[in-house]
Q: What sequence folds into this?
């Protein structure tokens, strides 16, 4: 699918983020890389520019146009206020003429028709660059602001958590809120990963498009077409959980399974893939239930994509036990694309509810308490939960991204 007439010059899109998107290592990067890959597939002329500190990402993950901060003074400030690292990055680059000029020169030299800004906190830099563009008589590019959360609201939430990231001056929250609100009102179009946040911004008179996450997995292996969820090997049924070591993934596990995995029978398993497994085992709460957790749990670590696909499509169910936090939540997109029953908390369904509403209780199951969540796990390993419709699965496959991007670019280019 192409946005452009073959005889026309493809639109130039500059994608700017607080991280690289060459070799993704977390959910936000994976989501952004999927979007960028979709742009290339549409025939667009795309360049990416990440802005981040040297210690955040290794050299083999960086792009050729990225701006990398190498400064001990910045590092000290970042580790003092990690919750506001994104704001600090912008302030630091703006104060260092060499870095600021590198940012501006990339925009001026590439001369994009569209700037896709991932998260709002780099907007002051974009605004300064656009002033330079205006000074040389170039046409101002359209601005698409893409975000995974209402960012400042999330910062308040994280700071209030019992294991939050520290005590902060209210002035930092005010600075973040001012930048975010200015970016929201200045953008030509806002792309939201969360349907509820999109609705709230629409009520404020802002132009939005809802772009839910899609899986990065290709799922070459087709899920079972059975209406029931029985494992391929019914003698050893299991439920699957795959996630990173990001702390909400660990907290969700202990919120739902804090009493251990004793609700599973001796031949049933919870199979855990990704770095979340090691983080769960290192947590002090693991020790109290070590014996039963190691007997009923299998901690698989990182799995190649084909092995992760096998884990998913042969599972009795995929679980998304997220009780706090926010972000790209690709776990849910992966689970929904697997074709297997999905067990989730209300938090896990945030951003997806409008797309799965018709499947609730019919392939997608929601539980807000540990007892109810474990009851659903039991029904799953017993083969009593129905798998979702193939139509639901198709909504979250990578092939859908191009049609959604076409809607976005058509909408933003039509604006005066």
A:
């Amino acid at each position: 699918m192409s946005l452009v007439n073959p005889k026309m010059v493809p639109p130039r899109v500059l994608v700017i983020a607080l991280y690289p998107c060459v070799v993704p290592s977390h959910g936000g990067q994976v989501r952004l890389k999927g979007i960028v890959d979709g742009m290339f597939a549409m025939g667009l002329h795309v360049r990416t520019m990440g802005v981040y500190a040297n210690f955040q990402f290794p050299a083999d993950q960086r792009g050729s146009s990225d701006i990398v901060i190498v400064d001990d003074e910045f590092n000290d400030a970042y580790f003092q206020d990690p919750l506001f690292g994104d704001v600090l990055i912008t302030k630091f680059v703006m104060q260092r003429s060499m870095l600021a000029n590198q940012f501006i020169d990339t925009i001026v030299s590439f001369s994009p028709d569209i700037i896709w800004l991932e998260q709002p906190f780099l907007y002051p830099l974009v605004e300064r660059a656009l002033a330079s563009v205006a000074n040389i008589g170039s046409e101002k590019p359209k601005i698409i602001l893409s975000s995974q959360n209402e960012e400042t609201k999330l910062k308040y939430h994280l700071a209030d958590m019992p294991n939050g990231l520290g005590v902060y001056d209210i002035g930092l929250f005010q600075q973040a809120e001012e930048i975010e609100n200015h970016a929201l009102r200045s953008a030509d179009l806002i792309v939201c990963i969360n349907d509820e946040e999109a609705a709230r911004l629409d009520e404020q008179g802002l132009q939005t498009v809802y772009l839910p996450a899609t899986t990065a997995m290709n799922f070459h292996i087709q899920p079972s077409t059975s209406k029931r969820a029985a494992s391929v090997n019914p003698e050893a049924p299991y439920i699957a959980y795959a996630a990173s070591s990001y702390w909400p993934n660990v907290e969700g596990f202990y919120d739902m399974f804090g009493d251990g995995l004793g609700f599973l029978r001796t031949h049933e398993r919870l199979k855990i893939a990704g770095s979340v497994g090691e983080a769960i085992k290192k947590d002090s709460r693991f020790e109290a239930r070590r014996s039963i957790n190691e007997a009923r749990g299998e901690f698989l670590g990182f799995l190649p994509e084909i092995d992760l696909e096998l884990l998913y499509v042969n599972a009795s169910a995929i679980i998304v036990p997220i009780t706090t936090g926010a972000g790209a939540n690709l776990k849910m997109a992966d689970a929904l694309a697997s074709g297997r029953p999905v067990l989730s908390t209300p938090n896990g369904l945030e951003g997806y509810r409008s797309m799965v509403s018709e499947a609730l209780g019919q392939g997608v199951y929601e539980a807000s308490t540990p007892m109810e969540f474990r009851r659903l796990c039991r029904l799953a390993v017993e083969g009593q939960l129905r798998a979702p419709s193939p139509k639901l699965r198709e909504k979250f496959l990578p092939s859908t991204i191009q049609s959604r991007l076409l809607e976005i670019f058509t909408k933003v280019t039509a604006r005066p």
Remarks:
- The chain has two domains: 12-214+399-413, 238-394.
- The chain has 17 helices and 13 strands.
- Residues 238-394 form a domain with the Rossmann fold fold (CATH 3.40.50.2000).
- Residues 380 and 404 are 33 Å apart (CA to CA).
